[in-house]
Specification:
mainly alpha, Arc Repressor Mutant, subunit A, Rna Polymerase Sigma Factor, Chain: A, 191 residues
Length: 191
């Protein structure tokens, strides 16, 4: 069930979760979901977007991530980096979303409503962003996940391996393969 869209709804949800008393039997060490939302919602938003979630679906999936975080908050191991745990949840939901909808990934084509000082520069930047998103979308999901986690979100290889539940060597192999594929695609694009 989707619970409404928009960041205002997400803020209300986080405040509601934050205000709820701990469930009976829940550990007093359980994760504070409201504080986690406040600190990491932007990270999760970016992660979902970079994993190919369409712009119009981002708010709903972001909300689903934090619903899962709420349900599984007692399972969180504070000895582990929270971003890796959040990334794993977001990755799983993004994969499920793509399977359920079975639609081709779309790019966000809406123009931002901010004032543009130099329209030509803004257009070039927009085209570069679209090109980058298109090239990432052409990678298979496993390689894209590793590439985005390592190159964009700066997660260490060991954390990526733990999140994806693969050996560290597999992370390195996928990263190398993704870099090669992107370099080849860029070279072909320039011809």
């Amino acid at each position: 069930m989707k619970i409404g869209a928009g960041r205002d709804n997400l803020r209300v949800m986080a405040q509601t979760i934050h205000a709820r008393p701990a469930e009976a039997g829940a550990s007093s060490q359980a994760l504070d979901v409201g504080a986690t939302y406040d600190a990491h919602a932007e990270f999760v938003w970016r992660a979902l977007h970079r994993m190919g979630v369409a712009s119009e679906d981002l708010a709903d999936l972001l909300q689903e991530v934090f619903v899962v975080v709420h349900r599984r908050r007692a399972d969180y191991d504070p000895e582990r980096p929270i971003r890796g745990w959040l990334w794993g949840i977001a990755l799983g939901l993004a994969r499920n979303h793509r399977r359920k909808t079975a639609r081709v990934e779309r790019l966000d084509r809406r123009v931002e409503t901010t004032v543009i000082d130099d329209p030509e520069r803004a257009l070039r930047r927009r085209r570069q962003q679209e090109r980058g998103q298109r090239l990432l979308a052409e990678l298979d999901p496993e390689k894209r996940a590793v590439f985005v986690m390592f190159e964009v979100e700066a997660l260490p290889g060991r954390e990526i391996a733990r999140v994806l539940d693969v050996p560290l060597g597999t992370v390195h192999s996928r990263l190398h393969s993704a870099r090669r594929a992107l370099a080849a695609a860029l070279e072909e694009d320039e011809r």
